[in-house]
Model the fold of this input.
Amino acid sequence: MSLIMHIPVSSNLQKLRKFLEGRTGKAIMEYNMIEDGDTVLVCCSGGKDSYTLLAMLMALQQRAPVKFRLIAMNLDQKQPGFPADVLPAYFESIGIEYRIVEADTYSVVKDKIPEGKTTCSLCSRLRRGIIYRTAKELGANKIALGHHRDDMVHTLFLNMLFGGKLKAMPPKLVTDDKAHVVIRPLAYCSEADIAKFARGMDFPIIPCNLCGSQENLQRQKIKEMMHDWDKRYPGRTESVFTAIQNVVPSHLGDNGLFDFRNLTLDTPVDEGDIAFDSPEMPISGTIPIKLPA
Ligand code: SF4
Done:
């Protein structure tokens, strides 16, 4: 039985839950994330996103036309002050099958990375290896992560502005060892809605800065930039996310995606020639953006 059912929920929270379930279900369906007979390992860090992910998947499991198994997993990285009893108690209370994996990646990272340097990339690599190994041990063919729409958009900007690549975070991908499919069922959910839901549900959140690392500075800057944009021109994050799903290779510049070299008068080109269009760009939403002449 789900904990969610025991908690008296306000009608607003109920509505928000339904909305998020709808969004999650839509993403799962559109990207065919979960199929009959799947075993899904749900990665739970104790943050708002992973609690929401688990709640959504449990709710959808009840009424999905396909049968799948969910196993919640938490990796105890032995960070000082990590409250090791919180997640097991929570998993017990909601009656989900779970696995807690203990691995002192904290010491490894502290040992290998000089003081003041960013620890996240080594930490994530170690974590990824442990998650894949656990999925194999448990016979899970899918691994669900709690990244949401805003994470995906921020990653796009991060890669564009600092990595010179037009690349976001995919809703679904195959792991390097070809053993599992990683899914992001919250791809259509905004961070603000997830935060509201998590507050309403009073999830026992575990702080994410126990390792002492500051959040990646560049990612933080991108977040601030998007937040600022969204305040001034509401709906921009959503619009950028839609753009990720709506790519026009003939209007980018990647020879690998579109054969510009062999372009002839007969080559079909999506969306036609916009080279001489007016610099005013009609953008879906409320505010047209004026480009400099
Ligand atoms: S914030 Fe800490 S726990 Fe999270 S990835 Fe970075 S080093 Fe690891």
